[in-house]
Design brief:
Rossmann fold, Four Helix Bundle (Hemerythrin (Met), subunit A), single chain, binds 5-S-methyl-1-O-phosphono-5-thio-D-ribulose, four-stranded mixed β-sheet, 13 helices, alpha/beta, globular, seven-stranded mixed β-sheet
């Protein structure tokens, strides 16, 4: 189940499935330079918070691989410049900044370890430049980040599956599946884990205007895995709840503040309010790399605004008058008080979130200002 390969490192390139053309076409693109990866993140060839982070890590490894520097200072500067370029791609996904930070840390340790790494070089590497061991360490780190993500998602699935009961109707929004991660998915990982357990479930998929991650991507994943599902317009969610067809809502997250407020695809907040009004539990599933302890509340989460054309055009065809103003925030923030539980790979955090999220990070402290 879920053999989808979202992104991987291959022969000094980064390969990713083109999510812009799914499900009509299953096409992979090959990024040979870090600028190709930057473009792929910006134009949403790859999207979903964890996948964006992994793409950035691999992109940084790719960019560093091609660097030519004759001293530590210029190598150092050029590396950090590449990291800075990636940090300008999409502002909301915490995983992006988490991955960049991790690559910066690995760079520092690899530079310090160079004499030791030097000894373990292969003959082929010995012909390469003096920074080859550092470059190799960064490639390995980016691959590791991807592998850890799949493992985390599997644990999220195991930690969350008990919230789904036999014969439950589940509503999900956007795509928090294999395509949004290195594999298996977060919210969709929990759904997959319940399905793998043999529970009879039915998933209602919000189409997720304007980019249609639900209709194009989540629907594709569910059909591929044979999980019973129904596609609905975003406007149908409340009506379904009123009919008693939804037992729980589960979504992913792009960034979770220290108090549990969670940014996710635009429309998530409306669903959470609807769920509360109907007494339906609302779950957020995300890896710890989505949690931003530097941000105390959701009001501090930067919300990306995307091009007007995403709303005014459908597949290249203009549907709105040229003169109309457009407001197109890609995400909204659901206050923690609407969230029943946050499911992570470490554990499930229940309210009060400020206290219980902190417990997931025993070695870190909160930002209090
Ligand atoms: O704009 P996108 O497609 O990158 O937005 C993705 C989402 O909002 C997902 O729900 C979120 O990143 C969680 S993915 C595991």
């Amino acid at each position: 189940m879920s053999d989808i390969r979202t992104i991987y490192w291959k022969d000094r390139t980064v390969v990713m499935i083109d999510q812009k053309v799914l499900p009509a076409e299953e096409r992979y693109i090959t990024c040979r330079h870090h600028e190709d990866v930057i473009e792929a993140i910006k134009d949403m060839t790859i999207r979903g918070a964890p996948a964006i982070g992994i793409a950035a890590a691999m992109g940084i490894a790719l960019g560093t691989f091609h660097l030519k520097a004759d001293n530590d200072e210029t190598f150092h500067q050029a590396f950090h410049l590449i990291c800075d370029e990636f940090s300008q791609t999409r502002p909301t996904a915490r995983n992006l900044f988490w991955a960049i930070e991790r690559m910066r840390k690995r760079f520092i340790t690899a530079m310090a370890d160079r004499p030791a790494l030097e000894k373990s070089r292969t003959a082929e590497q010995a012909l390469d430049d003096v920074y080859a061991p550092v470059k190799q360490a960064l490639i390995e780190e980016s691959i590791r980040i991807g592998k850890e993500d799949v493992a985390a998602n599997r644990r999220i699935g195991l930690n969350g599956r008990a919230f789904i009961k036999n014969n439950n109707g589940i509503l999900t929004h956007c795509n928090a599946g294999a395509l949004a991660t290195a594999g298996y998915g977060t919210a969709l990982g929990v759904i997959r884990a319940a399905h793998e357990e043999g529970k009879a479930i039915h998933v209602f998929v919000d189409e997720t205007r304007p980019v249609l991650q639900g209709a194009r991507l989540t629907a594709w994943e569910l059909v591929k895995d044979g999980i019973p599902s129904t596609l609905i317009t975003d406007n149908t969610a409340g009506f379904l709840m009123q009919q008693g067809k939804i037992d729980l809502v589960i979504v992913g997250a792009d960034r979770i503040a220290a108090n549990g407020d969670a940014a996710n695809k635009i429309g998530t907040y409306s669903l959470a309010v609807l769920a509360k009004a109907h007494g339906i539990p609302f779950y957020v599933a995300a890896p710890l790399s989505t949690v931003d302890l530097h941000i105390r509340t959701g009001t501090d989460i930067p919300i990306e605004e995307r091009a007007a054309q995403e709303i005014t055009n459908i597949q290249g065809h203009r549907i709105a008058p040229e003169e109309i103003d457009v407001y197109n925030p890609a995400f909204d923030v659901t206050p923690g008080r609407y969230i029943t539980a946050i499911i992570t790979e470490a554990d499930v955090a229940l309210p009060p979130f400020s206290e219980n999220i902190a417990k997931l990070f025993p070695h870190q402290s909160f930002q209090t200002s």
